[in-house]
Write a structure and sequence with these properties.
Shape: globular
Number of strands: 9
Largest sheet: 7 strands, antiparallel
Oligomer: single chain
Order of helices and strands: EHHEEEEEEHEEH
Number of helices: 4
Strand order of the largest sheet: 1-9-8-7-6-3-2
Helix content: 25-40%
Length: about 180
Amino acid sequence: MRFETRQRIQGTVDEVERALLDERYFEFLLKHHGVLLELQPLEVKTEGDLVRRKVRYRPKPVIQSIGPKQVPPEYFAFIETSTYDKRRKELSFTNVPTSNTISKMLVNTGKLSLRDVGGGQTERSLDGEITLKLPFLMKPLAMIGEKIIQSEGLKILDNEVPVLNRFIAEVIRKG
């Protein structure tokens, strides 16, 4: 299932980029984001104009059980493996669930890009794909599952916008 979203951020492309790449942003985001329970940078490497990173996220569980089966909170945790290209203002990513059971079934990839829209604002565009690999007889459940995962992922992004705006205003601009 393909998806896309566009968001307006109150900052120039330079300010947004500096905020997203600032090592202090991880802690700030975790403290002020309503959905994330854990956010841990595992690796951040700068190689010229490329920034490669691995970040572990654990959002609040959205469902407690599927039928009689309990869903462990760890099923919702994932590791973002991404590369940000400073020249192109694009981040390509793959989100891999930390649970082996879930990672065999779920694929989430995409591209995030930043674009100046004038007036000191930036448009953040996200184009991605979520695929659940389930047995043939469970395909109808895959479509429902993909929609739920997409919806919850977009909530994480939407809840990030005010936090990012605040970080730009309180940290990036104050230098």
